[in-house]
Amino acid sequence: MSDQELIKAIIRGDNSAMRELIGKYQDLVLNTCYKVLRSREDAEDISQEVFIETYRSAAALRSEDDISYWLYRVSLNKSINHLRKSQNILFRSLLQIEALFGHSDTAGSHRTPMSDDHPGDTLESAERQEMLARAVASLPAMQQKAFILHHYEDMPYKEICQVLNLSLSSVESLIFRARTSLKRKCCPPSTDQLRNKNLKI
After folding, report:
1. Has residue 129 been placed in a domain?
2. DSSP designation for 112
3. What is the Cα 184 distance to its own chain's centre?
4. For residue range 14-57, what is the model confidence (pLDDT) as tens digits?
5. Residue 32: exposed, middle, or buried by beta-carbon count in 10 A (0-12, 13-18, 19+)?
6. Helices 67-86 & 40-56, crossing angle to 10 degrees?
7. Statement to judge: residues 58 and 94 lie in one domain
8. Long-range contacts of 118-122 (CB under 8 A, 24+ apart)
C-alpha cells in the first residue's frame, strides 16, 4: 500500500495499516530522534510519541505529499523539545561538529587514550566537547533543526527545505548563522585579537 492508502486505512480505523506505517518508518524516526538525544531509551520514548501523534493527525496527513518529511519534522520538534525540557544538553558524540572546526581528525577523535597521553590533554578534550555540545543545544530552534539535518543526517539543502517548509535561501541562512554562532562560542578570539580591535578585556 502507498502512504496515502495507509493513511486512508488508518482513518477508517484499520490498526494493521498503522502497524505497517510504523514498520515502514520506524528506523527513520528512531534514528532522527537518537541523533538529537544521543540516548537510545529517550529516542525510543520520543519515537512512540511521534507515532501517537501520527495516528491522531491521520486526517490532516491526507494533504501531505510525502509522509517522511512530516515525520522528520515532528521527530525533530519532539526531540529538541524533550532535550530542552530535560536539560540534557550534552551530546555524547560530536565527531561531525569537531571536524567542522578542525578540532580533531575523524580517525582519532573517539580513540581510547594511550598510556602516554597527557591527562591534561584528555581533560581539555572533554571540556571542549562539553562546550561544543552546549553551544549546539543553545542554538535557536530553527538553526538547530537545519544544522542537525545537514550535519548529522547528511541531508542536502533542497530536502531540508521540504522538511522544514522553508525556501532554499532561508535554509542556507539558518545553517550559515548556526555555524557562525558555534564558531563564536567555541572559538573565541584571542587576547591579542581583542587588543588589535581596541576592545576592553
Report:
1. yes
2. P
3. 20
4. 999 999 999 999 999 999 998 888 789 999 999 999 999 999 99
5. buried
6. 130
7. no
8. none
Rounded mean pLDDT of 152-170?
89
Alpha helices in the chain (DSSP H): 3-11, 15-37, 40-56, 67-86, 95-100, 119-137, 141-151, 157-164, 168-186, 191-196
Range of the domain at 125: 89-103+118-190
Query: 71 and 95 share a domain?
Result: no
If one counts the domains in the chain, the total is: 2
Which pairs from 118-125 meet CB under 8 Å and 24+ separation?
none
What interhelical angle do 168-186 and 157-164 show, nearest 10?
100
33 with 77: CB under 8 angstroms? no
| The dihedral sign for the CA sequence 112, 115, 116, 122 | positive
